From TrEMBL:
<dbReference type="InterPro" id="IPR050459">
    <property type="entry name" value="WD_repeat_RBAP46/RBAP48/MSI1"/>
</dbReference>
<dbReference type="Pfam" id="PF00400">
    <property type="entry name" value="WD40"/>
</dbReference>
<dbReference type="InterPro" id="IPR015943">
    <property type="entry name" value="WD40/YVTN_repeat-like_dom_sf"/>
</dbReference>
<feature type="repeat" description="WD">
    <location>
        <begin position="229"/>
        <end position="262"/>
    </location>
</feature>
<dbReference type="GO" id="GO:0006325">
    <property type="term" value="P:chromatin organization"/>
</dbReference>
<keyword id="KW-0539">Nucleus</keyword>
<protein>
    <submittedName>
        <fullName>Histone-binding protein</fullName>
    </submittedName>
</protein>
<dbReference type="InterPro" id="IPR019775">
    <property type="entry name" value="WD40_repeat_CS"/>
</dbReference>
<dbReference type="GO" id="GO:0005634">
    <property type="term" value="C:nucleus"/>
</dbReference>
<feature type="domain" description="Histone-binding protein RBBP4-like N-terminal">
    <location>
        <begin position="2"/>
        <end position="68"/>
    </location>
</feature>
<feature type="repeat" description="WD">
    <location>
        <begin position="320"/>
        <end position="362"/>
    </location>
</feature>
<keyword id="KW-0853">WD repeat</keyword>
<dbReference type="Pfam" id="PF12265">
    <property type="entry name" value="CAF1C_H4-bd"/>
</dbReference>
<dbReference type="InterPro" id="IPR036322">
    <property type="entry name" value="WD40_repeat_dom_sf"/>
</dbReference>
<dbReference type="InterPro" id="IPR022052">
    <property type="entry name" value="Histone-bd_RBBP4-like_N"/>
</dbReference>
<keyword id="KW-0677">Repeat</keyword>
<dbReference type="InterPro" id="IPR001680">
    <property type="entry name" value="WD40_rpt"/>
</dbReference>
Length: 450
């Protein structure tokens, strides 16, 4: 029995929820925007997806509603992996369409490398960066009475150009990083192969070419407010805003550097602090812990996912080892400061429990991986390009992932895995405390395999 068939046969034991959709084209970017109550007690999640079709094929940004199986997944009797008419995975939804496109925008600028939406309350803007180096900002609002374009991801009608707000022109080569300010819904960051980071403010329009005949040409063209070109010596793959400080941001590059930038410093050549410099790795992604802002996680061409303390980054706090190849994305959980997910180039998505770093384990358990290894998702067969946790607390253990063979998956591992580890941790603490108070205390011999 091959590994794929073995995984499918055991999904009912490993997952509370599992859904696999085959898109028409591959995607490098995926973002879980929100989760709202739906009809018949099935919640609906909204996603932003950008295609990566090469050659003459057209690329699109999609806003897609996905019907979920409930906050606690799918009932046990339906946890059987099967091939449905529109998808693969568990049965739920009573035969209703699971995927509904709410909006589609044609992007005639090459492959979409990253698409992200503003999270500032009241903002309905989103953007994408492309292989051409340009970025597009668009309005993602959809009237409430609008019918879905189609119950799938294979549509040809409409281009959505009327939603385009602005074109951002400031990079000379392919752009990879894009992130919105957490404090201002009209400020964003981009990074590119040209070693540069650009900051943008839609309030300010240094150059405006509106007035063209088509909606696409009528979109105003904006140049960057600031350009930072001295920190990195190679492509800047990722840029994110600092969790706590509106003027600061963090970048990761192919030169093995993680830089922290301060936009308040007028001299851009001295506005950065290279907090990490690892010549053995080229970083693809960086994530900041929203509860402990001094903690960073990085993924790159090396097989290890690294945890860093931004206050002292001379060496990583921990190296998390389980991927066979590099990591394309890393993401801290939105609600648990100790959970981290990483997307591997070999096709695995690994969930880590940082509380167990350095924990002692038996030789038998060590064969399955390090103690901080919580779960390994093996639903993809090729490199996983992007991952995201659910933003709402009710679905806090749900993850969505997309790979370069067109597979888009939503899944949630069974929660008792985390509960078992919590129970083992508390039991170990009780035994240690009792032994400290009563040195003669000898616990019964037992083995708890996590």
């Amino acid at each position: 029995m091959d590994e794929r068939k073995s995984w499918q046969d055991n999904t009912g034991l490993l997952y509370e929820f599992l859904n696999n959709y085959s898109c028409e084209w591959p995607a490098l970017s995926l973002e879980w925007l929100s989760t709202q109550p739906g009809s018949d007690s099935f919640p609906v999640a909204e996603f932003l997806l950008g295609t990566c079709a090469d050659g003459p094929r057209e690329n699109y940004v999609y806003l897609v509603d996905v019907t979920l199986g409930g906050p606690h997944g799918v009932s046990m009797e339906n946890r059987e992996y099967g091939v449905r008419s529109d998808r693969m995975g568990f049965e739920y939804g009573e035969g209703k369409p699971v995927y509904n496109i709410r909006k589609r925008i044609h992007i005639p600028l090459g492959e979409i490398h990253r698409a992200r939406a503003s999270r500032v309350e009241g903002s309905l803007l989103a953007g994408c960066v492309c292989a051409s180096g340009e970025s597009i900002v668009f309005d993602r609002s959809v009237p409430k009475d609008t019918e879905p374009i189609d119950a799938g991801l294979r549509i040809k009608e409409g281009d959505g150009h009327e939603s385009v707000v602005a074109r951002l022109c400031g990079h000379d080569s392919a752009a990879w990083g894009l992130a919105w300010s957490l404090f201002d819904g009209e400020q964003l960051l981009t990074s590119s192969d040209d070693h540069r980071i650009c900051t943008w403010n839609l309030h300010k329009s240094p150059h405006d070419t509106s007035g063209g005949k088509s909606a696409w040409k009528a979109a105003k063209t904006i140049t960057p407010v600031s350009t930072y070109s001295t920190g990195h010596t190679k492509a800047v793959q990722c840029v994110i805003p600092h969790i706590d400080h509106p003027a600061m941001f963090i970048s990761a590059g192919d030169d093995g550097q993680i830089c922290v930038w301060d936009g308040r410093i007028s001299d851009h050549e001295h506005a950065f602090f290279p907090v990490v410099k690892d010549p053995t790795d080229a970083f693809n992604a960086v994530s900041q812990n929203k509860f402990k802002a001094h903690l960073l996680a990085t993924g790159g061409t090396g097989t290890d996912v690294c945890i860093w303390d931004i206050r002292n980054c001379g060496y990583p706090l921990a190296r998390l080892s389980h991927h066979d190849k590099g990591s394309n994305a890393v993401a801290f959980n939105e609600h648990r400061d100790y959970l981290l997910a990483s997307a591997g180039a070999e096709g695995k998505v690994v969930v880590w429990d940082l509380r167990d770093i350095g924990k002692e384990q038996s030789a038998e358990n060590a064969q399955d991986g390090p103690p901080e290894l919580l779960f390994v998702h093996q639903g993809h067969t090729t490199a996983v390009q992007d991952i995201c946790w659910a933003p709402d607390e009710e679905h806090e253990f749900h993850i969505s992932s997309v790979s370069d063979n067109n597979e888009w998956q939503l899944w949630s591992y069974v929660r008792h895995m985390l509960c078992i580890k919590d129970t083992a941790r508390r039991l170990h603490a009780v035994i240690s405390c009792t032994h400290a108070l009563y040195p003669c205390f000898v616990p019964l011999s037992c083995s708890l395999v996590v």
